[in-house]
Amino acid sequence: MSVAETKSEKLEGWNRPPVVVPDGEGELLEVAMGPHHPSTHGVFRMDVALDGERVIHLKPVFGYLHRNHEKIAENVAYLASMPYTDRLDYFCSLSNNWAYALAVEKLAGQEVPERAEYIRVILAELTRIQNHASSIGFLIQEMGASGTPLMYAFREREKILDLFESLTGSRMMCNYMRFGGCRVDVSAVWLDATRKVVAALPAFVDEFEALLSSNEILMARCQGVGILKPELAVNAGISGPMLRASGVDYDIRKVDHYGIYDRFKFRVPLGDHGDIYDRYMVRVLEMRESITILEQALKDIPGGPIMDPKAKIRGFRPKPGEAYGRIEAPKGELGFYLISDGGPNPYRYRVRPPSLINLTVLEDMCLGHNVADVVLIFGSVDIVLGEVDR
Amino acid sequence: MKSVEEIKAAIEAAVPGARVELQLNPGPAAQHSLRLSPEHAVEVAKFLRDDPELAFDFLSNVTGVDWPDKEIAEKVKVTREVKKIVDGPDGKVEQTMQETAEEVRKHLEPGCLEAVYHLYSVAKKHGPLVLRMRTKNRSDQVELPSLTPTWRSAEFQEREVFDLYGIVFKGHPDLRRILMWDGFKDYPMRKDYVEPDDFEYEPTAHDEVLKRAQEHRSSEQGSGGRDQGQVAG
């Protein structure tokens, strides 16, 4: 189906923005942005219909990286999918691990020792900081500032990845969490190194903000572009920083209190306008809040075991039943839905990918904007194709 | 949040004629679910979203589950009358006796495709509520009403369920394959899906590979597939 043919009238009764009508001058131009395009962060296509520079239609096309992760997971044991969850959103492997472990713990009714919960919080918040930093770096890169701003973000990310590597043995594919705890214990040396890194982080965020937040070009390109209304954001299932940038106060860490998040004091930053600038600002503020969580967690971390002593590693067969577990991953709500029939493999294994569902409103945000803004709006959604296509 | 039973009662009071079944979850998670009749599902969805007390405005997760046809073997005790020759006072006598025996009876429980929806409330900060709908069978009556007009977040997820399970969502504005390509025929997430033979042309095919090559050649003839005439030779 050609892009221009997809009728917007079909979508009547939807929560849709007004349809942009071409002004009659010139012809519509159909452009396939992608699958190989520097702005798409991977293999992803947007079929765009343009009237001059203005976007009239936009249809995202997925599946270039589809490998049917869910089918593969249904054919292996529960634990065997843990390394594969690293490959979903390969920027945040530790939060993927946590979401999967949480869902299986709900399914099997397992407890997690306190020390393991603290380690999970520390790792998840470090993941959030490095994800937000690099996603802002990529956003600036897409604005045309090639290279340098991204390297500021990657410099910090590198320090955090070094911590991951020394703890888990891998920079990105960490495969660290287990059902009922964590794989290896953290050492006092590692905790000291982490404290040092965390102590240096506020200075990095300050520097980042001094360079960017009041930058004239960034403000001109981002303010008032790609606005997402809160009602549509909730209705379309948007989650994470994107939802909060539209002014909706919904953070799963605060709502579900999963893990031990009710013990920490932190605020949930919200946006006013729901434009790209707000999404940028929410991410910066979330980094600051993550730093306060990290400081509290590193201060209070108790001793003790890191695995539930009753946890079964071999012959793990949860009782028949089902569970949906979700966490606030850096990109949004990451959920795992599992059905057990009592066997060693999950009967049904489903990933709720925040990246894919956050793209639902991509067309709504882009309509009427210039084609150069599409790249920016897409970048502000913050997706990873490994999770979109699975 | 209201309990699942209370929500069930509220739905039945608000939408006349709607059949809602409570499906208990035996596992420790205890996330019980409500099975809706497809005829009234759209009205029920609107009620759940717009009711000020329930306010399930956030549809988080949509997915499919495949329940294939199941052959169930039951052991049944059957009493039969058996004629036996017994020694009597006047020699051999034929006598009817009752005998109980165990018999295995098999019957086919028809399978179905199931769509599962996880609802949360952003306004009231509660959840999850699990909704399920079942198709009549797995082959020709696989239609369910789409909830995309009520919750936009189902747009891509219902497309994915259609793509991987083959559930046809009536009322979806743009129901196309999303992850597989348009020309793809089967539904890969179904339990009885057979993967295509992972065969590659090999110039010196022999033994097993040669057999497979020949099978491919015969099945692909006339289908406009690759020319594999030289494989067998």
Task: Briefly note the CATH topology name of the largest domain in chain B.
Answer: Beta Polymerase, domain 2
Poorly predicted sequence stretches spanning 5 or more consecutive residues of chain A: 1-17
Q: Based on the coordinates given, report the CATH architecture of the largest domain in chain A.
A: Orthogonal Bundle
Strand order of the largest sheet of chain B: 1-2-7-6-3
Any overview of this molecule?
- The complex is a heterodimer of chains A (390) and B (233).
- In chain A, helix 3 (93-108) runs antiparallel to helix 4 and helix 6 (188-212) packs antiparallel against helix 11.
- The longest helix of chain A is centred in the first third of the chain and has 29 residues, at 114-142.
- Residues 1-17 of chain A have low confidence and may be disordered.
- With 390 residues, chain A is of the alpha+beta class.
- Chain A has 15 helices and 8 strands.
- The relative contact order of chain A is 0.18.
- Chain B folds into 3 domains: 4-66 and 113-170, NADH:ubiquinone oxidoreductase Nqo5 subunit (Beta Polymerase, domain 2, 2-Layer Sandwich); 70-108, no CATH class; 196-226, no CATH class.
- Chain B has helices at residues 4-14, 41-50, 154-165, 207-220, 229-232, and strands at 20-23, 33-36, 58-67, 70-88, 91-109, 112-121, 126-134, 143-145, 168-170.
- The model of chain B is unreliable at 222-233 (pLDDT under 50).
- In chain B, strand 8, helix 3 (154-165) and strand 9 (168-170) form a beta-alpha-beta unit.
- The A-B interface holds A 1, 6, 10-11, 13-15, 62-63, 66, 68, 70-71, 106-109, 232, 234-239, 248, 250, 255, 318-324, 326, 333, 335, 337, 339-340, 347-348, 350, 352, 356-357, 359-361, 389-390 and B 25-29, 31, 57-61, 63, 65, 116, 118, 122, 125, 128, 130, 149, 151-157, 164, 173-174, 176-181, 188-189, 193.
